[in-house]
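Lecture 7 notes: from sequence to structure.

We start with a single chain of 80 residues. Read the sequence below before looking at the structure.
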Amino acid sequence: MAQIADRTGGHAYEAKKKEDLDAIYKLIAEELRNQYLLTYTPDKVDNDGGYHKVLLKASKTDLTVTTRQGYFAPGGEDSK
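Now the structure, written as tokens:
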């Protein structure tokens, strides 16, 4: 689960006991309060369905950016 969460820009939380849930819920609530949606449109359209890495950095070093590792462009064999 942690690997899937990491690749998609998410987080995996493990609750070993019921008492862990409150702390996990607080972490999730904090993340939801601090979300932003950024969009990107490439200069050149990829009609072949290629994979594109995503690298997003904040200009302030005290901020943490969470994003997926990349995406497949629409098109190619998989979308037919």
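The longest strand covers residues 51-53. Keep this in mind for problem set 3.
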